[in-house]
Amino acid sequence: MAECATCGFLAVLDPKAGALDGCGSDYRENGELEYRDTAFQHHRWPICFVSAFPLRKEVRDAMDRDGVYSGDASSVHVVEVLKRNRDECPGFTPWRQGFTPKEHQEMLDRQWRLEFQAQREEADRQWRDQQRKADLEWREEQRRRDLEWRERESRETRKWHWRDFWAVVIATGLIVAGASVAGAWLLRTAPPNTIVQTHDVVVPAPQVNIMVPPPAHLPTPSPQTPG
Length: 227
Hints:
This protein is mainly alpha-helical. Helix content is 50%, strand content 9%. The protein has two domains: 4-96, no CATH class; 115-190. The chain has helices at residues 25-30, 55-65, 75-82, 101-189; strands at 10-14, 19-22, 35-36, 39-40, 47-48, 196-198, 201-203.
């Protein structure tokens, strides 16, 4: 249970120095202050160093309730107020003996700075990890798109190569067929004894040999006898 008696921010006023000092175990348990020489060094009124609760007013109200009228706080009522449940207090800090309320605050500030620095470092690390992951994803996406583009370009190139190849084959076939048809036509239409030249090939005109027999009415000469 959180209570002012166990909080490091419980303080009392030193009127000579005008400073808030920490409280020992006697004051926290019995409401008794340290006695030096012939005068109290501190006022008995409890004070919250972080002003979470108006402790002086609470002690005064408790004294007025019981009809106690005094210029200084009553130890009984001080203990009553210090032992109240303060679970709802946002500034409760466990008391460390030997440390003043100011030193307790400095410890909290130092702890807060360390936690804040750790949170910043963690947030920065997470941000770097996210940036690294996003960069890797972007590079992977660019690589995938580049591969798709190269494959598409390769397919288109191969397609055009095949088109060019078949175009050359068909054109060559048409040229050869045309030349053959033209040569055949020229052979058919050429006159006799005409040499037809097609594609550097000399084709002689066909020759016809006619056998003419001797005339039958001519007498056969007889051999003469030398005289």
